[in-house]
Design a protein that fits this description.
ten-stranded mixed β-sheet; disordered N terminus; alpha+beta; 17 strands; 3 domains
Length: 481
């Protein structure tokens, strides 16, 4: 039969459910469930399908959906229509889910950065809909938690264009970053805020072509990878045993056993118009405003950084970190930003500021951005040692002391180096430990050794000053040789 692994061709499409970052649910005024309460403790009459409970659209969900649609350059349908997706299952007491048969937007793409180039992944559609109850499958029972029912969701559907798990994972990581950056969703997978339905079909041999299968509600990248590996191995085994593939199925992933489990056969859904939500006409001005309000997007920032010769690693890091993206946008608006300083700023931020800031406390950076910008230039011009920069950066982040005061304070503490004394100690080490021979073999190693010994002996001296004395000594030693 040949190498089964090499013969296997897989085609993958994704359905991704994204919990929106709104205060209230999509069709009622209950707070959006964030995954932090006891099961079935945050449930209202709407989630349970009580008679007389009517839906009312949360406008914030539409605004966030428009933001995502514009960032993905999708064609937006100006008429919003909602429908009832009819199906009888435990997780929906109403017997239907309010969703959109006609998507809010379709035919777009997400540019991802792969192998130092941009690759456009086609997005078929995005829909607004309500979440259902969480189903927990056990051997003898199914447990339901209705807390998340009614949460606002965007369902994003990709075209079936993936043929390897590496591209799938990269796409999901960069989509997750975009959603966080645009403040559309927190996308915490452990809280169910980003769930992936994996649709796939396999060709192992001309005689073994599977129908489409769907693995539902994968809540981590690791589970997605394991589910995919398990399904490929399962069908390779069936092919090896000359067993025909089963009919199209919906499967779940058992995290404990690391296997997929058949839940039900694939079924067709029926739709009826949601008569309690009238058609909503979106104005061209509203759509244009949503597009205009978008910040510089990750792939565009990546291209800008590449244009000014920022190294590949740093450019990718900025595009993947929503905090760094926000900082770049803010600096461009508020300060005299020079794009040719981008690479140096990234190094400065990673070495001195990244410990103190995250997406949650970005406002603190904005509050003192001018001080950090001045400190960056002190570091760039080497007016202050790295140790002093670290201490001042920490004080700026943790206290209300201003930059001018901190610099003055550190200059007052600065001890004037006794170059003669340091030279004598270097000479002593040079002779007693026979460093001349080692220096000829590895000059950098000897320089680092001397720096370590001198820092320990003279801890109050500036490191940059010690390095200067060592450099002068070694330069003289080279001339003598």
């Amino acid at each position: 039969m040949g190498n089964l692994k090499e013969a296997t061709k897989i085609t993958i499409g994704l359905e991704i459910h994204i919990t929106l970052k709104t205060k209230e649910k999509i069709f009622n005024y209950e707070n959006t469930y964030q995954g932090e309460s006891l099961p079935n403790s945050k449930v209202s009459s709407w989630e349970l399908g009580y008679l007389g409970s009517l839906p009312i659209i949360n406008p914030e969900t539409v605004r966030l959906a428009l933001k995502l649609a514009n960032s993905l350059e999708m064609k937006i349908n100006s008429l919003l229509l909602f429908d009832r997706k009819i199906y009888n299952y435990f997780d929906l007491p109403k017997g239907y889910q309010i969703t959109q048969q006609q998507p809010l937007a379709n035919n777009g793409f997400l540019p991802i950065i792969q192998n130092n180039s941009i690759k456009k992944i086609p997005i078929s559609s995005i829909h607004l809909e309500e979440d259902t109850a969480k189903s927990l499958y056990h051997e003898k029972e199914i447990l339901l938690d209705f807390n998340r029912a009614g949460n606002p969701l965007i369902e994003l559907v990709t075209a079936p264009v993936f043929h390897d798990k590496e591209t799938v994972l990269l796409f999901l990581q960069q989509l997750q970053n975009l959603l966080r950056y645009l403040e559309i969703s927190e996308t915490k997978m452990e809280k169910g805020q980003l769930r992936v339905d994996l649709n796939y079909s396999l060709i192992i041999n001309p005689n073994y072509v599977t129908p489409r299968y769907e693995v539902k509600n994968l809540n981590s990248f690791r589970n997605l990878e394991r589910a995919l590996e398990y399904e490929i191995a399962k069908h390779q085994q069936l092919f090896a045993c000359q067993v025909q593939p089963p009919f199209s199925q919906t499967l779940g992933f058992n995290e404990e056993k690391q296997i997929t489990i058949t839940q039900r056969e694939k079924t067709n859904y029926y739709y009826l118009p949601e008569v309690n939500i009238p058609p909503i006409k979106l104005k061209k001005k509203e759509i244009a405003q949503a597009k205009k309000s978008l910040p510089c997007l990750p792939w565009k920032r990546w291209e800008k950084l590449k244009e000014v010769k920022v190294n590949e690693k740093n450019a990718l890091l900025v595009s993947e970190k929503s905090l760094l993206m926000n900082i770049f946008n803010f600096l461009e608006k508020k300060l005299y930003w020079q794009v040719n300083e981008s690479n140096e700023w990234i190094i400065f931020f990673l070495n001195f500021l990244s410990f103190y800031f995250s997406e949650e406390n970005f406002w603190q950076f904005k509050k003192r951005c001018f001080s950090y910008w001045q400190l960056f230039h002190y570091w760039k011009q080497k007016k202050i040692s790295k140790e002093e920069i670290s201490l001042i950066a920490e004080k700026l982040a943790k206290t209300r002391q201003n930059l001018a005061y901190l610099i003055k304070k550190h200059h007052q503490k600065k001890v004037i180096i006794d170059q003669k004394l340091v030279n004598q100690e270097i000479t002593r080490l040079w002779i007693e430990e026979n460093l001349e021979e080692s220096y000829l073999l590895n000059c950098q190693k000897v320089q680092n050794y001397l720096l370590g010994r001198l820092k320990k002996k003279y801890p109050s001296y500036s490191v940059s000053e010690i390095i200067k004395v060592i450099s002068d000594f070694l330069q003289a030693a080279r001339k003598f040789d």
